[in-house]
Amino acid sequence: MTVTEYNSCVDQYADALYRFILKHIRDKDIAKDIIQDTYEKLWRKVNDVESTNAKSYMFTTAYRTLIDHTRKEKKRGDLNEAPELFTDKPFNNLKETLNIALDRLPEIQKSVILLRDYEGYDYAEIGEITGLSESQVKVYIFRARTFLKNYIGKLETII
Length: 159
Fold this sequence. Notes:
Layout: H1 3-25, H2 28-44, H3 54-76, H4 94-104, H5 107-118, H6 123-130, H7 134-152, H8 155-158
Helix pairs in contact: 1-2, 1-3, 2-3, 3-6, 4-7, 5-7, 6-7
């Protein structure tokens, strides 16, 4: 990959990569750090990565960096920030409800559902990014969608 191709890849995929990471952690600064680490890792491998594979490489690297960051944060832990399991507050809009439901999914299910439904990857590409088989990806997506459907309930009650 040439420097021009590298710059083109960064320009072309920066927004999608940032959205993907930000949906997971909801912290703009940490998301920017993870994206910056991803670009640095791509730059170090610029001679080994083909420009046609750059998108997949960047999403895979960002995903793995995100997982590493999440694992480090879990080890630290903060007992004061325990998630609220049930709320009496009714949901006012669908986007807010969906974001709360996504936060309750296990990390792997959240990742595959975001890659599939938000970023538009097919099952094989998601498997390549996450290191799962195509059938595992399908199972996790099915489970995530079932959970979201049950969590959200009837659309009429939200709107």
